[in-house]
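In response to reviewer comment 3 from the previous cycle, which asked for concrete evidence that the modeling workflow produces usable outputs, we include below a single protein chain processed end to end. The sequence was submitted unchanged, and the resulting structure tokens are shown without manual editing.
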Amino acid sequence: MSTSSTPTPTPTPAARSGTVRLGGDLPVRRLGFGAMQLTGKGVWGEPADPDECRRVLRRAVELGVDFIDTADSYGPHVADRLIAEALYPYPEGLVIATKAGFERTGPNKWHTNGRPEHLRASCEESLRRLRLDRIDLFQLHRVDHKVPADEQFGVLAELQREGKVRHVGLSEVTVEQVEAARRVLPIVSVQNRYNLAERDAEDVLDHCEREGIAFIPWYPLLTGKLAEGDGPLAQAARRLDATPAQVALAWLLRRSPVMLPIPGTSKVAHLEQNVDAALLELSDEEYEELESEG
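The workflow returned the following structure tokens.
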């Protein structure tokens, strides 16, 4: 008598990156997608190829990415709209994180605005643009030094109590700012600039790891001189038959269990390369050499 069984599905590339839990109750794969590049030059206006950007978003989900990071200031509003156009109705388990706290007046122009009324309006507008009933992760894009920090954290706590926000995160903060916010409400993620070549946020990353807070490094692909000539990154890339960017992402994923890189792109081919970084395995020697050279 013959028997049949359902074949075990092949893990997607992003699934190989592992999982981090936001707030303990929201698991996401540790290789996400950042939406900033789904806009025009200077993070302003429409992208050169909106159809390709929508294909990027759909392909990211096919590859197992279940965490997409955006912000109302990307475009402004352009990235949000493309996400909804490409992916709504959203597949089960997809987490869309967004940020608020900047106003835009032109290409490459960013003006901090942490006034409570602005943050509240930004949240409500993001809900509408993204077609969400609740934002799974709402992040303060910058702490506005012109506004008392407790007022900024307080309105985030209010939005959470009202059910408009599930979890709250911060961006570009110090350890002291993280702890100041945690005295007002739970913080589940921190998004700081961090990569192989720039590790000024090392103390923040270490603090996040100790406290079980996800660390989302932005600008994760910057490699500096490490990728030049016979540098350690270039050598590792040749040994692994990979690109320097892929090795840089693999190093980040190994650096900490709370690491959640969000490389972004507006091209499907580049997206596929980035996600394949989750398939790389660095040797102890390769990891430690890159660690010491950064």
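The mean pLDDT is 94. We consider this sufficient to address the reviewer's concern, and the full set will be provided in the supplementary archive.
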